[in-house]
Amino acid sequence: xxxxxxxxxxxxxxxxxxxxxxxxxxxxxxxxxxxxxxxxxxxxxxxxxxxxxxxxxxxxxxxxxxxxxxxxxxxxxxxxxxxxxxxxxxxxxxxxxxxxxxxxxxxxxx
Amino acid sequence: xxxxxxxxxxxxxxxxxxxxxxxxxxxxxxxxxxxxxxxxxxxxxxxxxxxxxxxxxxxxxxxxxxxxxxxxxxxxxxxxxxxxxxxxxxxxxxxxxxxxxxxxxxxxxxxx
Lengths: 110, 112
Fold this sequence. Notes:
The complex is a heterodimer of chains A (110) and B (112).
Chain A: E1 3-5, E2 10-14, E3 19-21, E4 24-26, E5 32-38, E6 45-49, E7 60-64, E8 69-74, E9 83-91, E10 97-100, E11 104-109
Parallel strand pairs in A: 2-11
Antiparallel strand pairs in A: 1-4, 3-8, 5-6, 5-9, 7-8, 9-10, 9-11
Chain B: E1 5-7, E2 10-13, E3 19-24, E4 31-38, E5 42-50, E6 53-57, E7 64-68, E8 74-78, E9 87-94, E10 102-103, E11 107-111
């Protein structure tokens, strides 16, 4: 079955603390992995793509194929990072589509 | 450049009616996908189109249909509306699988 699992619905950290948002996936094939973010009253937007190996707004994500995980990390959380984060995978198995996890709401406290 | 545009922004319909939602992708993006977003189910995949061809469809009843035109603009239609169809419907476009999606603001459909 194709599935993206984000085990935490809510994650609360203090400003300046490290943050890790977990994402595990199940997929038959080689998917592309993404993280999307939705800030309050804004549209859902792409945060980063695994394929580009980039760091955006201090966030990085490491693909672990053995553990089928793609966790999102940031060493020092900022209040403006408070948002809803979605992990997603795209692939062609069973027809092209992108599926999303249920999302994790990150709350960064002052 | 212009982003993904969805119209209308809000709709209120009565049970049993039908509705058509429109999406204009970013210029040059040939892949368009539709999602239903609800608080309980999150983002659920509806369909994906590429160059006017539906490449995949999610687990939704046949009342949900869509199409893509030669200019990549897309529409989705929901017939015989039910209360449970109330949701935010999101459209997203992409130049290809590796690039990720750009999302529109969505159409908020309320069925009464």
